[in-house]
Amino acid sequence: MTTRIFLTLSIILSSLYSATAQSNLPRLIIRGDDMGYAHAGNEAILKCYKEGIEKSIEVLVPSPWFPEAVEMLKQIPTADVGIHLTLTSEWDNIKWRPLTDCPSLRDADGYFYPMIRPNKNYPKRSVVENDWKLAEIEKEFRAQIELAMRKIPRISHLSGHMGCTSLNDEVKALVKKLAQEYHIAQYDMSLMDSGVLMAGYIGAHITSDEKLQSFMKMLESLEAGKTYIFVDHPGLDVPEVQAIHHIGYENVAADRQGVTDIWTNPRVKSLIKSKGIQLIGYSDLGR
């Protein structure tokens, strides 16, 4: 009997020690944004989850490749998926429109405006420079949420494309209301309330090699017991993505190929393992 009790206590203490040790490790969400912007973008995001370190995937519901994204996500049923709420269509050669009838959010051609805030390269073509209506933003956000939840039932969170969910305090309050109403526990603003820290490249990150070195420096800097999120946009350097750009961001294909290369790099995966960094999704934040 005494031996059995001793063994039971040993198991309990071992479990407690293991749980404590794990709680002191850095936790990191690797979030791949903009699924739906291109076929090659969808392929890259899928690759980064299957072969790399990506744990969260953000879907642009009004985008042209959203239907393919829905089908692709069926291949990775354990992936953490968020609705990347959007009010913009920023690329010059490819455009998308609102899901709803919302005149204050559309340009003269019926597309979303390219920018959220004023941009010298796109004068008077941002949301804030036009007479946007909060009621129309709510209508559009609801349509995006409902379509995404219908097609991808495992949605865990909301995020904002190009910062549209932080347009002003009214929009922030709207997103919080919608998250509560649709029973979506996590959304952009709630991360700060949960103590999640934004991680970013440390140092120059223009070339692929600079990107890799800067990303690894970021991993080295993560502190025990803290939770971080790192956001970027996987892609492939192929003709389709080479044709996607806007003024001020012309090297989209090369830049996003660099993200894919980093997130699938064996050296990166090895460093994450050696530092004991726990890769998590939004759905793990409450645990």
From TrEMBL:
GO terms for biological process: carbohydrate metabolic process. It holds the Pfam family YdjC. Its cofactor is Mg(2+). CDD domains: YdjC_TTHB029_like. Residues 1-21 form the signal peptide. Coiled coil: none annotated. One of its GO terms (molecular function) is hydrolase activity. Keywords: Carbohydrate metabolism, Hydrolase, Magnesium, Metal-binding, Signal. It comes from the Bacteria. InterPro entries: Glyco_hydro/deAcase_b/a-brl (IPR011330), YdjC-like (IPR006879). This is ChbG/HpnK family deacetylase.
